[in-house]
Design goal:
By secondary structure, the chain is mostly helical. The chain has one domain. Helix content is 78%, strand content 0%. It has eight helices and no strands. The chain is globular, with a radius of gyration of 18 Å. The relative contact order is 0.24. The mean pLDDT is 77.
């Protein structure tokens, strides 16, 4: 959610929508992996979990640092170029796929709702896992609609650009730190 709102505020509503859909797609990869048993393998292997955790954390920190070292738009300069939606989509997808907390969620939460007496477990897992990104896209949409409303205020006022950039960069750094601190389930 924080990633999507940060994208929306810094790049506009199209970037927010693209980020929400890309994160949903990345979360669907987790649903497929959990259905296939790969998530269980990832969590069972401390080394694999650590690699994914640090890759995700590093990626978020990299985005945060790039945002923080960026410059504000001056009144006599054109606005900085908007990133292509394809790049925003790739970044959102990678952020979601490399989020170890999503793997933990699928292994800790979804199995509670799977009942072997109701049919094939893999099918149930896939259906429940598919609901997660769909619901995420719907709820994240509410956040990026709100962020879109605020985005105009930020981009039209030079005085608001630096704080918005600092908040966005710091948010990405915080998300990276949160990913780095993720512990495998016991």
């Amino acid at each position: 959610m924080g990633y999507i709102v940060a994208r929306d505020v810094s790049q506009g509503w199209r970037a927010g929508v693209t980020s929400a859909l890309a994160v949903g797609g990345g979360n669907f990869v987790h649903a497929l992996a959990a259905t296939a048993g790969l998530s269980a393998l990832l969590v069972a292997s401390a080394q694999a979990f650590t690699v994914v955790k640090w890759a995700g954390a590093a990626y978020l920190v990299w985005i945060g640092v790039r945002t923080l070292v960026g410059s504000d738009t001056k009144a006599d300069q054109p606005a900085p170029p908007i990133q292509p939606l394809s790049r925003i989509a790739r970044q959102g997808f990678v952020v979601a796929v490399l989020n170890p907390k999503t793997t933990i969620f699928f292994l800790a939460f979804v199995p509670q709702f799977v009942n072997p007496s109701h049919g094939p477990v893999a099918w149930q897992f896939l259906m429940l896992g598919t609901l997660f990104p769909i619901l995420g896209i719907v709820t994240d949409s509410a956040y990026y609609v709100l962020a879109s409303a605020l985005q105009g205020l930020v981009t039209q006022r030079r005085a608001a650009q630096r704080p918005a950039r600092l908040v966005t960069g710091t948010l990405h750094l915080g998300l990276g730190a949160s990913a780095a601190l993720a512990e495998p389930p016991q």
